[in-house]
């Protein structure tokens, strides 16, 4: 009787042993040999790949600025984003209200390796102002978002280091550290939380050039579009040094519209609609 049981169990045990051997030979060595830098870069690349192919989208945005006393001011914007697969994306932000900023427009041509190009149209002055690299750490229209925060977060703009996995709400997030390649960045480093399942951003902590914890950006209310692309409905940036904050609420996402390069030219900023 014992012999019969052993004969029945033995094939199952051998199959399990073979499966374990395959995992040990082909998975474990790779994981064990990967450095924290390699792991951090791989996570960033996978997150970037998840969002490839959206082509373009438009959205409406409400920006609420709060000072340390809780006083608020509100602005309405329209946003257009064009995907450029061989380079960084192109972005256009146009203010609709209040009246004192109506018509103000920011155009961004992001690049994977070269410095980004940014232009700001100021209707009161009727001129287009180029944002220099040294000024991209400055506040965007009085908000807690810097100009460099609004550019496409291309993988090549940072070096990376994986730190740990930890719970983030009901999810599990990977926490990585990234360091801007641009020497004129306003940040020394950033800590990034991405959920393991969908690789969505949930939190970014920004550290200034003195390595002080300057700001924290959080993401909420994600929705999926075209059965693939996740977009946050709410982003909140808190400045820990000043007590100020800026909330961006996104609505009316429209993907794969008739946008093209002609909608993202410097000469067209004055007539941005």
Supply the key terms.
disordered N terminus; 13-stranded antiparallel sheet; globular; alpha+beta; 17% helix; 273 residues; 13 strands
Distance between the termini: 84 Å
Largest sheet: 13 strands, antiparallel
Low-confidence stretches: 1-31
Shape: globular
In helices, the fraction of residues equals: 10-25%
Strand order of the largest sheet: 6-5-4-3-2-1-13-12-11-10-9-8-7
The H/E string reads HHHEEEEEEEEEEEEE
Strand content: 35-45%
Overall average pLDDT: 89
Give the radius of gyration. Answer: 23 Å
Q: What is the strand tally?
A: 13
Structural class: alpha+beta
Q: Number of DSSP helices?
A: 3
Short account of what is shown:
The chain has 273 residues and is α+β, with helices and mostly antiparallel strands.
Describe the structure.
- This protein has 273 residues and is α+β, with helices and mostly antiparallel strands.
- The protein contains three helices and 13 strands; from the N terminus they run αααβββββββββββββ.
- The chain has a 13-stranded antiparallel sheet with strand order 6-5-4-3-2-1-13-12-11-10-9-8-7, covered by helices on one side.
- A hairpin with a 7-residue loop joins β3 and β4.
- The longest helix has 25 residues.
- The protein is globular and about 55 Å long.
- The protein starts with a helix and ends in an 18-residue tail after the last strand.
- The N terminus is likely disordered.
